[in-house]
Design a protein that fits this description.
- By secondary structure, the chain is an all-alpha fold.
- It has 51 helices and two strands.
- A two-stranded antiparallel ribbon has the order 1-2.
- Strand 1 and strand 2 (655-659) form a beta hairpin.
- Helix 11 (220-238) runs parallel beside helix 13 (288-302), helix 12 (271-285) runs parallel beside helix 14 (312-332) and helix 47 runs antiparallel to helix 48.
- It is globular.
- The two termini are 48 Å apart.
- 41% of the residues are buried.
Length: 1107
Amino acid sequence: GGGGRGAGPAALRMDPAQLAQLETFCHALYNAKSEVERAQAHQTLLPLVQNPQCMPQLQFVLAHTSNPHALIFSATGLMKLITTHWTSVSDQQKEEMRNFLFDYLAKNGPDLYRSAPSGVSPVVRLLCRVITLAWLEGPQFQNVTERVGQFLQSSPLHWVLGLEIYTDLTTDMQPSIGPSMSRFRRTALSFRDTALPPIFTIGMQTLQQVATGQITIGDKTEERRLMKQVLRLCCNCLSFDFMGTIPDETSDEQSTVMVPHSWNMLRDEGIPKLFFDLFSRSCTAQWPECAQLCLQCLVLLAALRRSFFQKEEDRTKLLASMMQGTTGVLAAKMGLQDTQCYHELCRLLGKINATHQLNELCASEQFQVWIEQVYSFSMDSLRHWEVMPNSKHYLLGFWAAMVSPVILLQDKAPKALEAYIQQITLAYIESRLFMAEASADPNNTADWDDPLQDEVLRAEQLDVLSNLGRCRYQETAQEILKHFEEVSRLGQAGQMNQAVFEKKMTWLVYMMGALVGGHASAKVSPASRADTDAAPTHVVNGELAGRIFRLVTVTDGQAVPSEGLELAYLYFLEQFRKVYIGEHAKQVVQQQVSERLATVLGLEDENAVLGLLINKIGNNLQQRFSLESVVKKTLALFHELAAGINIVHTSDRSPHLIVSGRLLLKNDMVKYILGNHASPQFGFLTHGLSYGKYRTMYYHTLGKLLFMDIRENKDAFEKFMEPQGHILNTLWQQSCQNPALLRQESCKGPLIGLCRDLRGIGLACASCEPYQMLFDWLVDNPKNPAASRVTLFSRALDVWWDDPEVTTPLLKFMSEFVYNKAQRISFDQSSPNGILLFREASTILITYGTRILQRTQFKDLYVEKYKGIGVSLDMFSHALHGNYTNFGVFELYSDSSLSKSMALALQMCLAIPLQELNAYLKALKPYYYFLELATRGHMSKVMELEPLMLTTLLQSIEEGLLSFETGVSMQCCAAVDNVISYFHIQAHNKSQNRTTPEQERVRRFLTEAPQCLQKILHLMFQLVMTGEFSSTWSISRPLLGLVLLHEQYFMQLKEQLVMSQIEERRAKLRGYFDDLMSGVENNLSTKNKDHFTRNLYNFAQVVRTLS
């Protein structure tokens, strides 16, 4: 290797032979001839990037190699090591590494750009990571603009290099979700206020110099590289996460760009023009990547927050230059053959429209020319629907967003707009039919996503159509009907291929649904105009629905269903449901409705219209159950109808509550389903174990209807439950003979089905009466609970504990059964039922918990272990918090079920390592719920844990305080508060000169593990001072206790926080801390806590003015 490159830090020396060997391995790693060679290289090199002791070696390679593969390997390896082991890198190492990388790039960067351009980025990224990680550790790491400034005053390639460092730094500074997130957020906000403004200014100045020709670079490739780098830098600066909100990756639209108020360089009115000029220059030079970046910057400028402009006219000027610029691009079709440029232009038009109201757009003198250009561009795009179909979404959104203001402004809106919108709508409908034809063709290899296959895409498109259709509702509906008639005619005459017929029909049904769904807020043609022969909307709706119900009758008779068409029907029915409910409301209010939907459909009344909906639901559950997506949507629609409460505003604006479940109970099909709910003709019930969740939903819906119908009629309930009772008795009798019999395969399906059904019924018990019926049905022998049918579940769990297909539904049912939601569980004063219910939950927890904790082999940790633990903790928490058990009774009568189950639940919590808890948080939220309840009511039990174990639980609580799940962070605050309050009570409980065992345990914990609570105290102050915690009230409760408990540590922490500020802010912060504790007494009375909360609230407000 070239040894004359300025040796790295006094590091391990490698002789040239060793270095050469390492270079060979690196080469093999990235392009090996064979798998064997690659595997060997991998094995040799892997230890180097896993052990922090190897950092000096990697740095030596970086300094001395001229092999691009070795360069990339050592730079990425170092980056991985310092990111993972940052805390073990010494301050001197950090300084040295940073200086070494700056010097290395200054010396070798330009040569690398020429000889091995792929080697530059990893080194730059490594440097940026060192700067980011060290940023908060002292001002010596923050002088980045000085160091990079030297690059910007040298050769063109040094200049590009300096800009690349800035570009990467602005990317690396963006905080992301994950461990130590809060530290990254603090880094980002400090960087935003100090280094980002000068960096952005440099970017903008460079652009202006390029545009005015002050910078000319002879070599075109170098000029292109410089241009791309500056544009990327400006784009990064504008899209910086200014508020530290860590936006989620999936939503690609940043709604507004929250640049700080001090960024005056953006108020210069020539800025949009600058980017449009650079765009046209890039198109001429054929530099598509530069052209795209120009448009991306313009999209960000169009989204600047309204409050950034001091005067309204500045904003108007920006809008005018945006319109002028886009008009020019559209007129010349500049750069639009490049797909990315096309996409960004569509985004830009959408953004201009989204950030301005229609009257602001119309006020601009550019408007007329601009809107004509956008219109012809949109129509053109729809004719070529197969090119970049996803970018069209922004264009369609552009027109859809115009609809409401056009309807609102009525005659004040520009005349042409309504006609434009109508034309776009029709062109869009036609483009979907062309798409249907193309997607039905098996030889079609186009690379667009078919919205019929992609639910998210489809929902977006139908949403847009439902909006567009509101503009001229009747005319649009008539057009769609024409298409429908034509496709039907050709299909029935056999003149259309079956696949094309199905695809086209599917689109038409969806589009008719979208129209019907949007019609409630459609523009009504004024009746006074003589030239309107448009039919009233209920007639139009009736015609659309009539066609579809006739089609349903035809396709329901066919043996082989088309999944796409079936899903389209369900979408239509969901939209039609809203219309139907509205029609029903009219009838309730006005009694005599002359114009009725039913008449148009040729039916006698609204009830018969509902019958059409319900019959389709019944048919799907009986015949279409092989299509899972259809079952899922059918049940969702059924549930919506049964449980929906709709507020409908009638013509006189008065709101009416329509409970659609009441209407269902009059329907024959519904009566039939309630009477024969378990009949084999509902084939989805027995379709297989994977359909279990649909059983729960089905019985939840039927339970709602049943309880609405029978009120407290016990006999009717017993009658309904007969099929389930039959299974329950059979299984229970087997468990009485010998529980092991339950483990037969023949019992598995019925047992799982029973748990799913009963959970559904449990979900429907919304008040005391239905719950009591379910309870009595299961606990059929309350005088001798051990001989009750309810004990089947713990017996079954005993033999099936290792099979999650059984345990998950069983535990979920029990969790629902012991859950006192809406205070539905209320037993008599003299009833032992509450204790009985708790003991059953306790038995189940112990049966499952002891086994699962002994098991060590798992194929799928989540399914086999954590899901079960999560649900059992959920169940146990419901039982603890149900308020139907007097826990004092257990110790009084030496019943160990509480203490055993409590100890086991704590063991289950301890069996989950912290990183697994974070990884499976969704399933394990009950972990925190349980810890909050355990520390609230059962601290003496919690204190029986060894100090080390208690520390483990407190560490996971500390981690939970940083959780983005608000519920989790609040429960963690409460849990810390519970622990601290208990400690205080024990400390101040002076009984006759002897310490109780509880006091001894507290004293032992505080002497053996004091830093555990101190870390929480430190973290809470950080959260308050950075303003990251959503509720000051919740965090103030435990914080006061922590401060009083660790007074010494609090003093040190205060000093440390004060000294970390720059000189002139120290006195201020010290004053804020004094105010925080002023008037606070050394006790935890509510009055004192409230006083501290007020102080903390003020403290949090003023501290933020420092940063």
